[in-house]
Amino acid sequence: MLRQGCLKLAGLRIFVIDEADEMLNQGLRDQLEQICKRLPTASRSSTGDDIFASLEQFQGRTAVQRVVVSATWTSGCREVMQQFLDNPVLILVPRFCATYVLSDELTLSSIIQSYIDVGGEEWKFEALADIFASICVPQTVVFVNTRRKVEWLAERLTHEGFAVSAAHGEMDQTSRDSVMGQFRAGRSRILVTTDVWARGIDVQTVGLVVNYDLPSTAAVYLHRIGRSGRFGRRGIAISLVGGQSTDKAHLATIAKAYGTAIEPA
């Protein structure tokens, strides 16, 4: 839009980089840099009558306030701050205001974490069905790692009589909004999704998160399980392990990263 001249920035006063660490993971650093280069800068023609304008010029700050937001405080976020902000002020959200805090110190008092060793990939669906039969919660989010598996799992669950919605990154925004609207309204009790919505689901009635596929990193695990146990409610997070020793080792690494325990169910 900027290259085509469709978006004018002359009147811009606040520029927000949301989900900063995820934007870096998606390789958007160059795009961010190009956008920041186009942001309006402080005028150099001030006569000094406005002390704040003069101070702004002296310090070399831009005329646009830049804000970086992230649910986790990672090395990627620090890189963004160092590259795109001048004299930044770090604001941490207190524990009582969030399920987790920006320093990567997870507050898990409201989330029960466990894993199930199913012995192999082919047994995961049966394990998932057993979970639904034994745990009664209003709504559940099931995370998988590929679009193909989203479609396969949603279709199979629907065939078994479950009310299911499905979402992945290749859907257009209209379709995503429709799926989210259905889920928020309670017309579906299960949302099968990739990590595209590991950060954007704030539904009070989600009481269970299932990692059908293990997340790639500890940070992704953090965001996934954070979909439950929100708004002061208790939540449950269950990860399915396919019987490989590397899966258990990966979970152990995640648990160590956040100083928590992920016990067998």
Give a written overview of the molecule.
By secondary structure, this protein is an alpha/beta fold. The chain has two domains: 14-91, no CATH class; 107-264, P-loop containing nucleotide triphosphate hydrolases (Rossmann fold, 3-Layer(aba) Sandwich), CATH 3.40.50.300. Helix content is 34%, strand content 16%. The chain contains nine helices and nine strands. The protein has a seven-stranded parallel beta sheet, with helices on both faces. The protein has a two-stranded parallel sheet with strand order 1-2. Helix 8 links the parallel strand 7 (206-211) and strand 8 (235-241). Residues 1-91 form the Helicase ATP-binding domain. One of its GO terms (molecular function) is hydrolase activity.
Silhouette: globular
Given helix and strand content, the structural type is: alpha/beta
Count of individual domains: 2
- What are the secondary-structure elements, in order, as H or E? EHHHEHEHEHEHEEHEHE
Q: Which spans of ≥5 residues are poorly predicted at pLDDT below 50?
A: 43-61, 95-106
Helix fraction by DSSP (H/I, runs of at least 4)? 25-40%
The N- to C-terminal Cα distance equals 50 Å
Mean pLDDT: 80
CATH superfamily of the largest domain: P-loop containing nucleotide triphosphate hydrolases
Strand content: 15-25%
CATH topology description of the largest domain: Rossmann fold
GO molecular function, one term: ATP binding
EC number: 3.6.4.13
Organism: Dibothriocephalus latus (Fish tapeworm)
Protein name: RNA helicase
